[in-house]
Design a protein that fits this description.
Elements (H helix, E strand, L loop, with lengths): L10 E5 L7 H14 L3 E7 L5 H9 L4 E3 L6 H16 L11 E6 L16 H8 L3 E6 L9 H9 L5 E9 L2 H13 L4 E6 L8 E2 L2 E2 L8 H15 L2 H7 L20 E5 L9 H9 L3 E5 L13 E4 L8 H5 L2 H12 L3 E5 L1 H5 L3 E3 L5 E3 L6 E4 L6 E9 L9 E7 L2 E5 L6 E5 L4 E5 L1 E3 L2 E4 L2 E5 L1
Parallel strand pairs: 1-4, 1-5, 2-3, 2-4, 5-6, 6-7, 10-11, 10-12, 12-13, 13-23, 14-16
Antiparallel strand pairs: 8-9, 14-15, 16-19, 17-18, 17-20, 18-24, 20-21, 22-23
Length: 451
């Protein structure tokens, strides 16, 4: 397919009727294909997702952000999206068409799927807040004439959202493609490309989602192949022309969560990778110095840090290795002993406990700073948004918005102060969350933004 160079307008959002439709692969393909054309393209992800943004970064070479229409106010969403666009343009230079950035937002789940009770926070809500046209990704593998149903339904249910067009995914033959295109044309919907089945481009998954980008054995070859497929089968010019400027309103601004200290040691490796880029950026913007360290490499947190942050991740997959990381565990205990704030979220909370039981039932000793034992052998999926009210001694005051997503459970718990009072997305009161012993604290909740 031949392409001409055109001026880009800023943003669009990829949505789908359901999870598993191929949004991630197509987002990666578009990011890489536009980057290969010399354009300043950047990705973002709708909702609470730590893994897809790392793939976005690998595809386009720029950090991807999270835009959460449940946890963030509309003005904050627009401010953060505009910041992402500004970051993409920074250092570009020149006034030519390629100097204008393009933000491609990957939606989560189905286009109208949000939090109960009213579905708030869906990809459609995000598109409306940003003024972003929606490109619908339709898995046409088991349909042809029905390909127009979902995008036409979204157009009818959310008429304030512009449906820019449809990408047909998992097309089996030219005849199949022609039938699906006719259905779209009959509904007045533009077809922006038809991607054939790409079995070689499947992404491996595990219990919390895709295998992390840094663990993909041939990541660069994978995203290069996705970009080549997008360039070959999608109408990149039409997709770029469909983008529209972000909405802007007076007072659009991001609410920043205060850093837990001025010098913050941040665990960062395959076991503790679930730190939101926007929070890290906000902490730096408020003057905090972030010092990364790797527990899996048996690195201790910086001895001069007045706070240690253990984000979530996959400690359950590395429990034996973490139990043997004496410098790491000793460094956590030393930080607690000198009065530093030691804060763990989800996987980080598990690492601060007495022990972590792996999938085979073997118990591995952890830092022993909180009286809790967690288990990946006794599993129960916990998933949902949380409104959090910090109790005395927590790193923050005031309401917080967050979420939980884990399979591990608490099998033993001793006496300690609770960290948060909590409700779910529907306002139902939950049991108080987390534990605190002095300046050591943690919970299964991931904090997203101030409430």
């Amino acid at each position: 397919m031949q392409h001409k160079t055109i001026a880009l307008l800023p943003t669009l959002l990829l949505a789908a009727p359901a999870s598993g439709s191929g949004k991630t692969l197509l987002t990666l393909g578009l990011l890489r294909a536009f980057r290969d054309r010399g354009l300043h393209v950047v990705g973002a992800k709708s909702g609470p997702d730590y893994i897809d943004p790392r793939f976005h970064q690998a595809a386009c070479g720029r950090a991807s952000s999270n835009l959460d229409a449940w946890a963030m106010a509309e003005g904050e969403l627009r401010a953060r999206a505009q910041g992402a666009l500004g970051g993409a343009l920074g250092g570009a230079g020149g006034d030519g068409p390629s100097a204008r950035p393009l933000l491609i937002v990957e939606g989560a789940m189905g286009a109208l799927d949000g939090a109960p009770p009213e579905g708030k926070g869906s990809a459609a809500d995000l598109a409306a807040a940003l003024g972003a046209p929606v490109v619908m990704v339709v898995d046409a593998g088991r349909m042809a004439g029905s390909a127009a149903l979902a995008p036409a339904g979204l157009r009818a249910l959310r008429p304030e959202i512009e449906i820019a067009g449809v990408i047909l995914n998992r097309i089996g033959s030219p005849r199949h493609e022609a039938a699906a295109r006719r259905a779209l044309e009959g509904a007045g919907l533009a077809c922006l490309g038809a991607m054939p089945r790409q079995e070689a481009l499947a992404l491996p998954s595990r219990h919390l989602g895709l295998v992390q980008a840094q663990e993909h054995p041939q990541l660069e070859a994978f995203v290069a192949a996705a970009g080549a497929a997008a360039a070959a089968h999608l109408d990149l010019d039409a997709i770029a022309q469909a983008a529209r400027p972000l909405r802007a309103e007076p007072g659009d601004a991001a609410a920043r969560l205060a850093p837990p200290g001025q010098r913050v040691a941040v665990a960062r490796d395959a076991a503790f990778a679930f730190a939101y880029p926007h929070l890290m950026a906000d902490w730096r913007a408020q003057g905090a110095e972030l010092v990364p360290f790797s527990p899996l490499a048996d690195e201790a947190p910086d001895a001069a840090a007045d706070a240690v942050y253990l984000p979530g991740g996959y400690p359950e997959l590395h429990a034996g290795r973490l139990a043997g990381a004496s410098a790491f565990l000793g460094g956590l205990r030393a930080a607690a002993a000198r009065g530093a704030t030691v804060y763990g979220e989800c996987g980080g909370f598990m690492a601060l406990g007495e022990a972590l039981v792996d999938a085979d039932g073997a118990a591995h000793p952890m830092a022993g700073l909180l009286p809790v034992t967690t288990s990946f052998a006794v599993r129960k999926m916990t998933l949902g948004y949380r409104r959090l009210a910090p109790r005395a001694g927590a790193p923050w005051a005031g309401a917080l918005n967050g979420h939980e997503f884990h399979y591990a459970t608490i099998v033993e718990e001793g006496p300690a102060e609770r960290l948060f009072d909590a409700t779910d997305a529907a306002g139902k009161a939950l049991a108080p969350m987390g534990l605190r012993v002095g300046r050591v604290m943690g919970s299964y909740a991931h904090v997203i933004a101030p409430g």
